[in-house]
Write a structure and sequence with these properties.
Length: about 150
C-alpha cells in the first residue's frame, strides 16, 4: 500500500514539474501574428442622382486633403473603393485611409490647426460643408481596422 502511495506522489510530482522541464520555446512561444497599420474605413451611401456630385467632391476636395495628410506623414495611403454589387442597405462607396499610429490629443489638435490653415477655413465652415453633402450622401458606417501579418 505504501508503495502505491509513493508512486501516486511521484506521478503527481511529474505532472506538476514536467511543464517546467519543457524547452523554453514551447513555453514562451510568440503569437504568430504581428500588429501592423490601422485603416479607417467609412461606408458611404450615395443617394440616387448624387453620384456625379459626390464623385466630383471625392476627386477634388477629399483627394486634396488626403494628399496633404500623406505629405505630412500622418497617413500612408488612401483609397476610394466602390461596392460594385451592393446589397440592400449596404454602402455604395468606402473611403479608406491607412496610418501607422493613432495621434494623441495634443497631436490631433496640432493636426486640426494645420488642416484649418491648409483649407483656409474654420472647423465651423468645414462642418457646414460636410452637412451640405447630406443632400446626396449619407455616412452609414465607420470602422477602425488593424492589419495583422504573420511573423
Amino acid at each position: 500500500m505504501k508503495m502505491i502511495k509513493q508512486m501516486k506522489v511521484a506521478a503527481a510530482a511529474m505532472v506538476v514539474t514536467l511543464p517546467l522541464a519543457l524547452p523554453t520555446a514551447v513555453h514562451a512561444q510568440e503569437f504568430p501574428l504581428v500588429a501592423g497599420d490601422y485603416s479607417q474605413v467609412s461606408g458611404i451611401f450615395v443617394k440616387d442622382g448624387g453620384a456625379f456630385k459626390y464623385a466630383t467632391h471625392l476627386a477634388t476636395k477629399w483627394l486634396d486633403v488626403q494628399k496633404f495628410a500623406k505629405s505630412k506623414g500622418w497617413i500612408s495611403d488612401y483609397k476610394i473603393l466602390v461596392n460594385e454589387y451592393p446589397r440592400d442597405g449596404e454602402p455604395t462607396i468606402y473611403l479608406m485611409t491607412t496610418f501607422a499610429k493613432m495621434a494623441d490629443a495634443t497631436e490631433a489638435e496640432r493636426r486640426n490647426k494645420a488642416y484649418d490653415a491648409y483649407m483656409q477655413s474654420s472647423a465651423e465652415q468645414q462642418i457646414a460643408e460636410s452637412g451640405n453633402r447630406a443632400e446626396y450622401r449619407t455616412v452609414q458606417s465607420s470602422m477602425l481596422l488593424r492589419e495583422y501579418k504573420p511573423r
